[in-house]
Recover the amino acids of this structure.
């Protein structure tokens, strides 16, 4: 279903947005040539949109999608290449992730194709996920000599359990939409062409509910695991930054960008 | 694209792929796998290809894996056979079933091993009356691959599937038709003409809708009726939005021949 492209915030280039009369704001990541890789500008635009959405009474629920092809294949590896641990600790991306994490209105994700690395982490920030049959989920960061750095180790474990989470995070292998549904990562599998539409109708149902109750329900559900989550996120963040000091990370990223197999040395 | 192990031509809105290693009964080596994959991927993304015809040159259709190919036997002890399956046969079967366009198979002679199962993975299978199907795997200690254990059970039922796979008996085209393993067996001389005109016909049909039918049929064996009713509802919604549906209805009401674009 094509969405109206009028920008919610003028000047945004990496996302498309539309606000429907039933108070649903749809945000579509729009870097199709880069498989919607999450460059910093894209994260910034998403978080700016959510900041404005927080106080906008014309919308009660958000749909986050990457369109009908791919949700997001990961972070923008080219941005990652020259970063040091200090760069990572000071990274503005953390600020944007924090805004997305703290967004108080319900958010439904509509996922197709690749939903990997940072893309999978972004998807897990949604409250409900709907995915097309051909979607693939994974946290392949280990292939680059790093680990998920935006909550992947924590949220994936909460959502699908330790053993399945370890399998994805330690092997870098992908999980199909059907497996993801069985594991509890997503709420519903549908035809790929219908993900956005299904997410929007679900969002429209939620948008008709009393908004304060919906907001506090979301907050309460998230509290179920929040205490451990904060500590885990902080640990993951530091571990993620630490890995930027390793030779293996430099090798992994270089190999990825030059499409060759990496040789890891444990240094 | 240039090919050495297959022939690839596009005409009348469809693509014809001919396995072309007749001196070895069109058995698969790595190169033929790669060429067949590239040809099918080209068909998948080309709007001017609205049906696919898979057939083979010479007296046989396909004898399966070329047992002489280095991928299977090596000087340094036994090979891991799962590697060629993971790399070639499984992706091939997944590709055939995921292309949302009708794939017709014209089995022109013996189809053995993976050769039989690749034919059975296609959507409409015709065979020349002198053609035959053999699940030869059991005779050399192997398990039917290329989806054979799945498609046979679904096509002919558990009793016949097990006997076919455990005994490796040769099944004639007529028997295969009678059992519902294939769509039709035809005169040897009529095979090319019949399947080519079928593809020409399919190429003028509502391709997107046919793709949805294929998707629904492929989902059926593993779904419950309840799930399948939902699949039908969802695909019908999509089909109802196609140009070809509009064209089909207005042609019907105007009592004229529809002109489908495949969109």
């Amino acid at each position: 279903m094509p969405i109206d492209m009028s920008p919610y915030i003028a000047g945004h280039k990496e996302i498309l947005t539309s606000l429907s009369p039933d108070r649903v704001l749809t945000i579509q990541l729009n870097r199709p040539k880069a498989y919607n890789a999450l460059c910093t500008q894209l994260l910034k635009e998403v978080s700016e949109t959510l900041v404005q959405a927080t106080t906008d009474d014309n919308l009660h629920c958000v749909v986050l999608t990457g369109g009908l092809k791919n949700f997001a294949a990961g972070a923008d590896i080219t941005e990652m290449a020259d970063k040091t641990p200090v760069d990572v600790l000071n990274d503005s991306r953390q600020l944007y992730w924090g805004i997305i994490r703290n967004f108080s209105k319900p958010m439904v994700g509509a996922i197709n194709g690749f939903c990997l690395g940072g893309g999978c982490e972004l998807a897990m920030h949604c409250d409900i996920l709907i995915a097309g049959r051909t979607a693939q989920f994974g946290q392949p960061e280990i292939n680059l000599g790093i680990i998920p750095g935006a909550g992947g180790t924590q949220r994936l474990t909460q959502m699908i359990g330790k053993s399945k989470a370890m399998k994805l995070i330690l092997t870098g292998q992908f999980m199909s939409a059907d497996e993801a549904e069985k594991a509890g990562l997503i709420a519903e599998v549908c035809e790929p062409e219908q993900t956005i539409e299904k997410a929007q109708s679900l969002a429209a149902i939620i948008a008709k509910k009393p908004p304060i109750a919906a907001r506090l329900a979301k907050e309460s559900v998230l509290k179920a695991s929040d205490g451990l989550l904060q500590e885990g996120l902080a640990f993951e963040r530091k571990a993620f930054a630490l890995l930027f000091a390793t030779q293996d990370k430099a090798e992994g990223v270089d190999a990825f960008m030059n499409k060759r197999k990496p040789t890891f040395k444990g240094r | 694209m240039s090919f050495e192990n297959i022939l690839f031509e596009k005409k009348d809105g469809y693509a014809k792929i001919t396995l072309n290693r007749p001196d070895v009964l069109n058995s698969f080596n790595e190169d033929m796998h790669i060429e067949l994959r590239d040809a099918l991927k080209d068909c998948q993304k080309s709007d001017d290809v609205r049906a696919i015809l898979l057939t083979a040159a010479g007296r046989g259709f396909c004898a399966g894996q070329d047992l002489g190919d280095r991928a299977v036997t090596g000087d340094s002890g036994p090979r891991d056979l799962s590697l060629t399956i993971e790399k070639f046969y499984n992706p091939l079967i997944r590709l055939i079933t995921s292309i949302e366009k009708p794939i017709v198979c014209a089995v022109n002679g013996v189809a053995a091993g993976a050769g039989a199962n690749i034919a059975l993975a296609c959507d409409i299978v015709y065979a020349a009356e002198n053609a035959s199907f053999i699940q030869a795997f059991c005779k050399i200690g192997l398990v039917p691959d290329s989806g054979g254990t799945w498609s046979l059970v679904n096509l002919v039922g558990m009793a016949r599937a097990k006997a076919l796979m455990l005994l490796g008996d040769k099944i004639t085209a007529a028997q295969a038709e009678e059992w519902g393993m294939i769509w039709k067996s035809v005169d040897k001389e009529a095979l090319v003409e019949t399947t080519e005109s079928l593809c020409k016909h399919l190429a003028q049909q509502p391709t997107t809708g046919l793709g949805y039918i294929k998707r629904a049929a492929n989902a059926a064996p593993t779904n419950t009726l309840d799930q399948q009713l939902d699949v039908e509802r969802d695909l019908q919604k999509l089909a109802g939005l196609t140009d070809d549906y509009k064209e089909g209805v207005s042609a019907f009401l105007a009592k004229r021949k529809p002109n489908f674009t495949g969109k």
In short: The two ends of chain B are 26 Å apart (CA to CA). The first strand of chain B starts at residue 6 and ends at 11. The mean pLDDT of chain B is 95.
